[in-house]
Structure to design on (108 residues):
């Protein structure tokens, strides 16, 4: 299940806006009702509950992709090691290292 903040962010992007902590804040009162929009200061209407729910699939996709990108980021060699690989082994060997990380962690 996509997080509430991801779905709000997708709503903003769909309306050509970007997340700004000074314009939106989310809150969870730990009362079993979940997260809600506590403040909204955009020049577009605050999304309804139905609009938020409509971003569930896109939110799941976005969060899955972000997970893959985060994993890749941790598995890539450091930039120093990558440059060393290029210098000592050539660009084709470096490409093999990068391709393996990408192949082990596909985007889809």
């Amino acid at each position: 299940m996509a997080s509430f903040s991801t779905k709000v962010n997708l709503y903003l992007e769909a309306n050509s806006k970007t997340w700004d902590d000074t314009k939106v804040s989310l809150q969870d009162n730990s009362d079993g009702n979940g997260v809600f929009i506590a403040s909204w200061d955009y020049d577009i209407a605050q999304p309804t509950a139905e609009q938020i729910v409509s971003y569930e699939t896109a939110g799941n996709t976005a969060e899955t992709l972000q997970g893959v990108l985060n994993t890749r980021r941790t598995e890539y060699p450091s930039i120093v090691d990558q440059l060393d690989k290029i210098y000592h082994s050539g660009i084709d060997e470096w490409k093999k290292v990068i391709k393996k990380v990408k192949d082990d962690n596909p985007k889809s």
In short: Residues 77-108 form one domain. The mean pLDDT is 97.
